[in-house]
């Protein structure tokens, strides 16, 4: 059984999609990041970095529980555990490269673009421009990669596509103000629509649907999500 620590945000969405694609049995454990539950000692024992997603595989290597955090690490762990969605052996170098491109580039820059366009104080025009342009640059790299290709790596659907889907699903937030956020990236648009049409993607969108997560963006939420912006308690 996979214990899946979840909040309805892009990185956990990747794990939802993988689990639904493979049919692995899992239990959803809510971590309401707007309430600061990611900072609770019990969760920090699972992920010292205080982020979702994280998993505990109760049937890990050697039959012992295994804890894994970071969406890219989880995708690799589960793909290797199941032998699914890894592509062909010869695809391995490109698979790792594109997973890291998404995990350390497209994802974080998209997240920072969203933060500075929606959450940061007014007047930070340099930061807004910097992260929006870097997000656009990463989109262009991926769009070029997908020219004439159905999938990011090899000839089959892999965890690289699952990883990309998680963040590209939020393109309308990243590309604030764009009527069609993927219009400038036709190859990404075609690819995303293909992944998003998979039955598992519809099921992944329903993961956690019955859980009430906090939606009010008040001071508690801002302190929970951006603790480094506030002085430590006396």
Summed up:
With about 230 residues, the chain is an alpha+beta fold.
Describe the SSE topology.
Blueprint: E1 2-6, H1 10-22, E2 26-30, H2 41-44, E3 54-57, E4 66-69, H3 71-82, H4 92-118, H5 125-145, H6 159-168, H7 171-174, H8 186-196, H9 199-205, H10 219-225
Parallel strand pairs: 1-2
Antiparallel strand pairs: 1-3, 3-4
Helix pairs in contact: 1-3, 1-6, 1-9, 4-5, 4-6, 6-8
Q: Order of helices and strands, N to C?
A: EHEHEEHHHHHHHH
Give the full name of the CATH homologous superfamily of the largest domain.
Glutaredoxin
- CATH architecture descriptor name of the largest domain: 3-Layer(aba) Sandwich
CATH topology description of the largest domain: Glutaredoxin
Q: Give the strand tally.
A: 4
Query: In percent, how helical is the residue content?
Result: 40-55%
| Major sheet details | 4 strands, mixed
Described by the principal axes of the CA atoms, the overall outline is globular
Organism: Pigmentiphaga soli
InterPro entries: Glutathione-S-Trfase_C-like, Glutathione-S-Trfase_C_sf, Glutathione_S-Trfase, Glutathione_S-Trfase_N, Thioredoxin-like_sf
Protein name: Glutathione S-transferase N-terminal domain-containing protein
Domain GST C-terminal: 88-225
Characterize the structure shown:
- The chain has 234 residues and is α+β, with helices and mostly antiparallel strands.
- It has two domains: 2-84 and 203-229, Glutaredoxin (3-Layer(aba) Sandwich), CATH 3.40.30; 89-197, Glutathione S-transferase Yfyf (Class Pi), Chain A, domain 2.
- Helices cover 50% and strands 8% of the residues.
- The protein contains ten helices and four strands; from the N terminus they run E-H-E-H-E-E-H-H-H-H-H-H-H-H.
- Strands 2-1-3-4 form a four-stranded mixed beta sheet, with helices on one face.
- The longest helix is centred in the middle third of the chain and has 27 residues, at 92-118.
- The chain is globular, with a radius of gyration of 18 Å.
- The termini are far apart.
- The model has no long low-confidence stretch (mean pLDDT 96).
């Amino acid at each position: 059984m996979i214990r899946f620590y979840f909040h309805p945000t892009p990185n956990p969405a990747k794990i939802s999609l993988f689990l639904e694609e493979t049919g692995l049995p899992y239990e959803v454990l809510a971590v309401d990041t707007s309430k600061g539950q990611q900072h609770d000692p019990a969760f920090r024992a699972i992920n010292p970095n205080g982020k979702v997603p994280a998993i505990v595989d109760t049937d890990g290597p050697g039959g012992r529980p295994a804890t894994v955090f970071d969406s890219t690490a989880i995708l690799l762990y589960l793909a290797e555990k199941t032998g699914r969605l890894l592509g062909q052996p010869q695809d391995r170098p490109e698979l790792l490269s594109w997973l890291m491109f998404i995990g350390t580039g497209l994802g974080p820059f998209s997240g920072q673009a969203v933060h500075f366009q929606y959450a940061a104080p007014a007047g930070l025009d340099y930061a807004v421009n910097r992260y929006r342009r870097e997000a656009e640059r990463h989109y262009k790299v991926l769009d070029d990669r997908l020219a004439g290709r159905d999938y990011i790596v090899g000839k089959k659907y892999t965890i690289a596509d699952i990883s990309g889907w998680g963040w590209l699903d939020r393109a309308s937030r990243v590309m604030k103000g764009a009527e069609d956020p993927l219009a400038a990236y036709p190859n990404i648009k075609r690819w995303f629509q293909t992944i998003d049409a998979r039955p598992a993607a519809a099921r992944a969108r329903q993961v956690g649907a019955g859980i009430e997560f906090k939606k009010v963006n008040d001071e508690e939420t801002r302190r929970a999500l951006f603790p480094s912006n506030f002085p430590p308690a006396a």
